[in-house]
Amino acid sequence: MSRFIRTRLVPVRVIALAAATAFLAACAAQVRVAAPVYVPPAAVVDVQVAPPALPVYVQPPCPVVGWMWTPGYWGWASGGYFWVPGTWVAPPRVGVLWTPGYWGFAGGTYLWHAGYWGPHVGFYGGVHYGFGYTGVGFAGGRWVGGAFAYNRSVTNVNVNIIHNTYNETVINNVNVTRVSYNGGEGGIRAVPTAQERLSDRDQHFQPTSMQSQHVQMAQRNPSLMASANHGHPDIAATPRAGEFNGPGVVHARGAAGRPNPRAGMQRRNMNQRNAAHANRGMRRRGAKRPGARKHPPKRNRKRKPQ
């Protein structure tokens, strides 16, 4: 008895669709999705007044080996400009450097260009933030292999703790000024260099969570508002991000500052030392020197007849 084998006709369109699906799946398996590139947030607009001048302050010493300096700047909130203290932070990864943000004048308003991390330092308006940020590039340190080395000539590091250092003289390429914005009336006249334009093609990384928290805390601090400190913030720099109290907090020059419980003791000790040095080698009136020779009393001498 012969067996009949039933065959089922499959439409050509079904076969073509299946082949196309398999082909697309194979192509998708070979496509590599590029890593997301950090895009700075939109610039702040509607700021009609220029930011204040940069305050003058000293840099606190680096608290942890490998941390990097991020300079202070004037931020903007609904109440006006506020100071974001300079601070030391941990970089998000090995080999990246910090490009500070800057204010730029364009279209009749002042726009904020946010800072970012990247393998090279980009354009930051030519603003002279100090401590290695001379307006172009960064001279405060460099990566040597997987470790960051500090330039002692412009950064404050304790060489007894941090040994990965070098000493290199920094020559400022721009005039040292406290102007905190680029363009406009009285602003810095600087344009990106060829190297800075190339750095725009690098992969950039957003500020760390600690940096973002640092800015939020500064925004909530009334004493950091420019309307309150008149350009001389009480908290100009901190050794650690988000720590606005305790030892190591630096005041701006001309700031009122908070009372230092050790200041009175230091002044008293200094006064005592100065007094000791001032009286050294001097004898009070009427006082006898120790070991001085005692002269016998003078005898009455007869006058010679004239």
Structure description:
The protein is of the alpha/beta class and 306 residues long. The termini are far apart. The protein is built from five helices and 13 strands. The strands form five sheets. Strands 1-4-13 form a three-stranded mixed sheet, with no helix packed on it. The longest helix has 19 residues. The radius of gyration is 34 Å and the shape is globular. It has a domain of 171 residues.
Walk across the major sheet and give the strand order. Answer: 1-4-13
Class by alpha and beta content = alpha/beta
Total count of strands:
13
User: What would the average pLDDT be, to the nearest integer?
Assistant: 79
Question: What letter string, H or E per element, gives the SSE order?
Answer: HEEEEEEEEEEEEHHHEH
Question: What's the number of helices?
Answer: 5
Helix share of residues? 10-25%
In short:
The chain has 306 residues and is an alpha/beta fold.
Question: Topology of this structure?
Answer:
Blueprint: H1 12-30, E1 68-70, E2 73-77, E3 80-84, E4 86-89, E5 97-99, E6 102-106, E7 109-113, E8 116-118, E9 141-144, E10 147-151, E11 165-166, E12 181-182, H2 194-199, H3 209-219, H4 226-229, E13 237-238, H5 263-279
Parallel strand pairs: 4-13, 6-12, 10-11
Antiparallel strand pairs: 1-4, 2-3, 5-8, 6-7, 9-10
Descriptors for this entry?
306 residues, alpha/beta, three-stranded mixed β-sheet, 5 helices, 13 strands, 19% helix, 16% strand
